[in-house]
User: What shape does this take?
Amino acid sequence: MGRLEEDLHDDLLVRVASRYFVDGMSQHGIAEAEHLSRPSVSRLLSEARSRGVVQIKVGRPVDRAHALEAALLRTLPLRACVVATGKPRALYGAPNRSGYVAARYLESHLSTVHQLGVASSRSLSGLVAAMAHAVRPDLTVIDLLGCPPNSRTTVDEDAHTARSIAGRLGARFQGLPGAFVHRTESSLNAALALANVEDAMRLGAGSDMAIIGVGSMNRFDGTGIYSPVSRNELIRLAENGAVGHVCGHFLRADGSVLQTGSVPLVLGIGPEGLRRIPRRIAMATGLPKVAPIAAAVRGGYITELITDEATAVALLQLTQRSLGTAFR
Assistant: This one.
């Protein structure tokens, strides 16, 4: 093999190894992309390992940004902070990076949990997709937000994560049967008067752990209903000081709950009921969620945070710049 052929072969080794170990491609996919046979790809991967093109290193998992986690814990009054790294990994697809990390964290903390409250949200859909199947007949997953019993279409499944999590875990499911958003107090009071709703609300407040999302002022989705609060209503709420919402309750920057005649009437766990749950894990990513996360922490609504690297950096900058002293 001449020098040129050696260089071309070495370049091929690097490409094949990168596709397999970094990009997560299958050997069949690599064979098609490089116009090689499947056995040839296998031999090239073995050669890449033996020649040091691929070097195995054992250390702490690199799917989490541990330095950022530590920095946030020094700034925010949280029990734990989990930050999914922004580096691409073959272990999970980029769109589900935070979901994968969140699923592993949740699974590792469920052994002593018998009642898990879930505030269904599209923010949690990545978590559901990454969860491993289990058999937990001793566990009850409880809806913390209202969801009509007939709201079970494919379109709604991403929103109704409580039911999906129960299915993944092989756990019992307790729904909160009723519309999440109500337009009148009489409608909400009628729902609250139903015995099955009252039972579900009581169970939800008695959860050992809760997993919730944090909403921005860009949208407000009810369980199984797309944006039941209009854009104009959200603008008015923002003008009154709202920066985000948790479990349907709009928060000011200082963490207090906004109380005006324009806030939506929601069927679900209240702010005080949420704070009585011992562990309250929030999963939230994206720059529009930074101010809402800070408000939720200041209000004491979350004890643990799962987010991604970009959101964590922005949250750290925000708290250090203007809110740091309020958290200490």
The first strand starts at residue 80 and ends at 84. Residues 12 and 44 are 8 Å apart (CA to CA). Confidence is low (pLDDT under 50) at residues 152-156, 324-328. The radius of gyration is 23 Å.
